[in-house]
Amino acid sequence: MPAKKTTKKKGLDASKGAGVQVLHGVPLSMGDLKKAPKNKSGVRSDLPRSAIKIVKGFNPRAVVADVEDLSQSIKKDGLINPVTVRPEEGKPGSFLLVAGERRLRAMDLIKMDPVPCNIRPDLEGDDLKAKAIAVAENSEDKRYSLNYIEIGRVVQELTDAEWTINRIAQETGVHPQKVRRCQTLMEAPKDVQSKVETGELSMIAGLELARADAGVRKKIQDALHPGISALDMKKLIKSAAKSAGAPDANGKTAKHLKGKQRDAALVTWQPSKAKQAKLREICHMIVNSTDEEKEYAEYFETRAVASTILWDRGDFPVPHPPSINPASAGEGIADEKEAAKEVKAAKAALKKFDDLVASEAAKHKEPEKAHKGKKPKT
Fold first, then answer.
1. Lateral strand order in the sheet of 20-23
2. Which H helix or E strand runs over 26?
3. Within 13 Å, how many C-alpha atoms sit on residue 17's CB side?
4. Residue 120 CA to chain centroid, in angstroms?
């Protein structure tokens, strides 16, 4: 009797005639294949607990909270969302955990074995993409969503690997603007990062503090308190900077200069036709961006340029664009009134920005084309 042919497709070893398919050393039933998640690479199957490894330091979540309540919930109602694993390269039958460490540890408490899994053969050997997926799946856990610093560590690693903002956003499911904010926070001093990670500061308030220089941060540190709003943070920083005097390029402050030097130091916006025309052109590009263009990094960079010029001109107190999604301003703030206040302020800032951009865009004029030949008669 001739030997049965075997074929390989998408990580599966299929033995024709026998009706058996094997994934990384694990036999799969037709039921497993039918339960494959729609629109995603992967196969649903139960795996022995001993086949799943938790890689230390891989989980973007810095602290895995107590899982006692979760274990009792799983014992009562079963596991709603399977954990996500990927084949361990070169070791058939062994899998590495990608997402679901809390769920897995909760199942360990009640000795649940085997473990329902979503197996992702496409992530085998691809650590960076696996981390991006870990962020995406953890972000879907609304009760224990990742904070900005936890996401920021992964964003930083992907950025170091030369991933673009747009690619990071697509793979992690994190909005491009949130990716940028995470990048900014990862450039902030460690004490600021620590306050945001522990929830002592909201993400917006943390960004405001990160933008202040070391002298100002030191001056206001005693006035900081858990839950301080971004608006109050701005006021503190502005007051401290004003009393200290803003330093110029030579380390001197405007109040120490005299005459024309002092006047020049206090004036940041020098009106000119060329500068005004460029602002109007940029605003025209923003207003006329398509929905598709708004998904790419260039759109957010254009908004950033416009906001910097508007800040330089004196229209805004800060040189960065307001959030496209004002509701995100309330994230991480336990006090509902404070969260609502932040959302309201974010909405007002976005409206002001949009109105200014629309106003400048309306003044934009396309450059006239030069006429060839004779000048038209007047």
1. 6-9, 12-15, 20-23, 26-28
2. strand 26-28
3. 6
4. 23
Q: What is the pLDDT of residues 124-174, one digit of tens each?
A: 888 898 888 888 877 654 445 677 888 888 888 898 888 888 888 888 888
Domain boundary among 126, 144, 177: 126
Q: How far is CA 231 from the centre of its chain?
A: 22
Positive/negative CA dihedral, 163, 166, 170, 176? positive
Q: How far apart are the C-alpha atoms of 355 and 259, rounded to whole Å?
A: 37
Confidence check: pLDDT of 179 > 90? no
Under 8 Å between Cβ of 79 and 116: yes
Split into its structural domains, the chain has a count of 2
Domain residues for the domain of 264 are 255-329+337-367
The three-class DSSP label of residue 267 is coil
For the chain, how are helix, strand and coil distributed in percent, rounded to 5? 50, 10, 35
Q: CA 312, CA 270: separation in Å to the nearest integer?
A: 9
Q: Which one, of 42, 15, 35, 12, lies nearest residue 25 by Cα?
A: 12
Residue 3: how many other CB atoms lie within 10 Å = 5
Per-residue model confidence (pLDDT) at position 15: 43
User: Which CATH number is 119's domain given?
Assistant: 3.90.1530.10
Of 79, 103, 126, the one marking the end of a domain is 126
Distance of CA 329 to the CA centre of its chain: 13
Residue 186 belongs to some domain of the structure: no
- Which whole-number Å values give the CA distances from 264 to 238, 255, 258, 275, in the listed order? 21, 12, 10, 18
DSSP, collapsed to helix, strand or coil, labels residue 8 as strand
Three-state DSSP state, 94: coil
Question: Which strand (E) or helix (H) includes residue 86?
Answer: strand 83-87
